[in-house]
Design a protein that fits this description.
Blueprint lengths: L2 H22 L5 E6 L5 E2 L5 E9 L8 E7 L4 E3 L4 E4 L5 E9 L6 E8 L6
Parallel strand pairs: 2-8
Antiparallel strand pairs: 1-3, 3-6, 4-7, 5-6, 7-8
Length: 120
């Protein structure tokens, strides 16, 4: 096989592999956000919430999300792992958003109430 033919065959094989891989990608169809703690509040006794993103179907290719605060950044921060941590002394409402990163563009918000307390 000549060099040009071999290059063409390799390019064709790579294209078919990439096409097959993208066909096997299963995008998220549904996203739900929950928390470990009983109530979605931050106060002196509960200064953080452990947030979880549940992505469906169960065989979705990517189960990761980006966590962001879309309201109340002055009241708390969220880690990449979904830990919402209160800071400052103000009370108010925090809206945390989980967004899928698989290209499905799903997001789900969770509203958390922060009560007036002396946080770090």
């Amino acid at each position: 096989m000549a060099t040009d033919e071999r290059s063409l065959a390799m390019a064709s094989a790579q294209s078919n592999t990439a096409s097959a891989a993208s066909q096997n990608l299963r995008l998220a169809e549904e996203l739900a956000v929950t928390h470990l703690e009983k109530d979605a509040i931050l106060n002196e006794q509960q200064a953080c919430l452990h947030l979880y993103a549940h992505i469906y179907p169960a065989n979705a290719s990517c189960k990761n999300v980006n966590w962001t605060i879309i309201q109340g950044e002055e009241l708390a921060y969220v880690t990449p792992q979904g830990l919402l941590v209160a800071h400052g002394t103000q009370a108010g409402q925090i809206i945390v958003r989980a967004t899928t990163i698989d290209g499905s563009q799903l997001h789900q918000d969770l509203t958390v109430e922060k009560h007036l307390s002396p946080f770090c």
